[in-house]
Design brief:
Radius of gyration: 15 Å
Order of helices and strands: HHHH
Oligomer: single chain
Largest sheet: none
Distance between the termini: 20 Å
Strand content: under 5%
Helix content: over 70%
Number of helices: 4
């Protein structure tokens, strides 16, 4: 994946995080329990911080084009989908089968950060 593509994906994930956070805070507050809202908030927080990381990695790829940085970004993007996505699903539905997906997302984050550190070292 090219640096500009990785940064663009980060921007899209950041925009989605803002929209989901606002929708949960204003549109879903009356329909969800405080616990469900806290799960959504956690998903939004992780999504937003990792979206910023994708933007940074994408920009860094322009300076230091390394395949490992691109792979790291892919794992971080997968982490957003699995970790935050499963939290949204758990808060909004009765799909309990999503619980095992959350730690897979966390592991994807860890792999992505580790690969990024290795590449930048």
């Amino acid at each position: 994946m090219k640096g500009n593509q990785l940064a663009a994906i980060g921007c899209i994930f950041a925009a989605i995080a803002v929209a989901l956070g606002a929708f949960a805070a204003h549109g879903l507050k009356a329909q969800l329990t405080p616990y469900a809202l806290s799960i959504i908030e956690k998903g939004v927080q992780y999504q937003f911080w990792h979206a910023l990381a994708l933007i940074a990695l994408g920009l860094w790829l322009h300076v230091t084009p390394q395949r490992l940085l691109s792979v790291a970004g892919g794992f971080i993007a997968l982490g957003i989908l699995c970790f935050s996505g499963s939290l949204y699903g758990l808060a909004l539905t009765d799909w309990r089968w999503l619980w095992p997906v959350t730690p897979l997302g966390g592991m994807s984050f860890l792999i992505g950060w580790g690969l990024a550190a290795w590449s930048l070292w």
